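Consortium newsletter contribution from the modelling node. Members have asked for a concrete example of what our holo predictions look like. Here is one, prepared for the S-adenosylmethionine complex that several groups have been discussing at recent meetings.
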Amino acid sequence: MRRPPGTAMIVRMNDVPLTDLPSHVEWCLIQAGVWEPAARALLGDVDITVRTAADMGCGPVGWLPLLLERWPELRLVGVDTDQRMLEEARGRLAPSGTGTVELRGEDLFSSSLPEAAFDLVHARTMLSTLGWSATQLAGYVRLTRPGGWIVVEEPDTTSFEPPPGTSAMAELLGLTREALLLAGKELDCGRHLDELFGDAGLEPQWRVAVVTLPPAHPYHLLPVILARQHADDLAAVVDAASLADLMLAARRDQQRHPEWTATVTLVQAWAVRREDQ
Ligand SMILES: C[S@@+](CC[C@H](N)C(=O)[O-])C[C@H]1O[C@@H](n2cnc3c(N)ncnc32)[C@H](O)[C@@H]1O
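And here is the predicted structure:
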C-alpha cells in the first residue's frame, strides 16, 4: 500500500469510477452551506465599520453574499485563481445597496491588491488547502488597514467519526493528513490557529463551530472529496490503484449507512491589525 520513496506516480482521478461525486464548484457550495450559520454568527459580532472587504480564495460563493448582506454599501473584492469559481460567484451576486463587487482572477500569493486597503480580510480553508500559512497570514495582515479585522476559518477533521465497523474513511483521512504534512500543509490546522496568529504577531480571538450533519448529507463525502482534491500530494504516500480502491470503499461505506451522521468542526479565528504593525 505504501509507496516506496522515489516511485511517486501521478493519480489521474478521471480514471476513478466515482462519477457521481460533486464537482469542485459544487463541493465548495456544499461546504459554504454547512458553515453559513457560523459565518453569520461571526459577522454579526464584527463591531467595526466595514466599508471595504476581501475574500481570499472566495470560490463560487465563500463569504461574498453574506458580506454584502451585512454591509450593503460595501466595496467587496473576491480573489480566486479559478475562472469557473468566479463565474459561479458572479451569477450568485446581486448587490442590492450601493455596494460593488470586484472578482479578481489572481493568485493570493502574488495579489496586486493595495496594502492596508481593507477593513476586513477573510480566508476560509485556504491555509489547510495551500499551506505556506505564515506567508498567507502575513499577506492578509498587509492587506488589512490598521484597526481592521483578519478572519481565518480552518477545519479540525478529527471530529469526523466514520460509520462504526468501517475503516476506509478513517484510512483516507489519515493518508490525506500524512500526505499534506509531507507537502508542508496541515489538514487540521484549525487546531493551531491561535499559534499561527501569534506567530504572525496577532492576538486572536477564536471560537469553534461544530455541526452534526443530517443523515445522507452530501458533506459526509468529506474524506473522499479531500482525497480527490489532494490526489497529487497523496501520490507520495499511496499508489493510484490503492487510493482509488479506498475512495470507492469509502463511498460504498457511506451509501451502506444512510442513517449515519458525522460531526464536522471549523475553527474561526480573528484579530485586529494593530496600529504599529
Ligand atoms: C477549498 S476551496 C474554498 C473556497 C472558499 N474559501 C470557501 O470556503 O467557501 C479553495 C478555493 O481556493 C482557490 N484557490 C486555490 N489556489 C489559490 C490561489 N493560489 N490563490 C487564490 N485562490 C486559490 C480554489 O480555486 C478554490 O476556489
